[in-house]
Amino acid sequence: MVVVEQQIRAHKSQTRRTVQLKRLLPQYELAQEKNLYKFTKAEKSVGDALAAIILILESPTADITWQKGVKRQLANLDRFIEGTQLFDKMNLTEEHIILISAIIDNVTIENSSLNQTSYYNAILTFYKWVKRILQYHTLLLEKVRPIHQKYKEIEEDVLEQDQKLILLDSKN
Question: What are the recorded GO MF terms, alphabetically (predicted)?
């Protein structure tokens, strides 16, 4: 019961973050569209945060370079926003979580060059969103899936015992 409550809290937290991200993204959309292709290379924190998001939205083998992966992902902001809302439909594997963690742990949000309010808010929101997704899927892998597996095993045992009982009743 506690695990279910934790999962519900984690899901509600992710929903709030998604709503916050959805609210913040339109503010940056116009400026982003105008300036996106002017950048030859993003700051490391920006690039790492967006690379982690691409790994979540796409796959572990997705291109996470600034020139191809990030620019392509941000070129269609509607798809990007939709993808961030559907994160829980995907199942992240343990290897996927480790890979994303290695990237997002490199993000330094206290960098003085990120002190511009718009960049700081965007990167902080992306950073928190990725961290919460990792927490959600880690909880799912460590707590919920074993419970579901045990439930299936018990259900199969019950069906087997029911069949044996039916067989015994038919003999009598």
Answer: dynein intermediate chain binding; dynein light intermediate chain binding
| Number of domains present in the structure of the chain | 1
pLDDT mean by block of 10 residues, the chain; 172 residues: 84 88 75 57 68 73 62 73 69 78 76 58 80 84 86 92 88 76
Cβ atoms of 18 and 84 within 8 Å: the answer is yes
Residue 122: domain span:
2-143
* Model-wide pTM > 0.90: no
Q: The tokens 């609210």 sit on which residue?
A: 23
Instruction: Let me know if residue 23 belongs to a domain.
Output: yes
* Residue 63 DSSP one-character state: -
Among candidates 103, 165, 94, 168, which has minimal Cα distance to 130? 103
Q: Is residue 127 one of the residues assigned to a domain?
A: yes
Stated length of the chain: 172
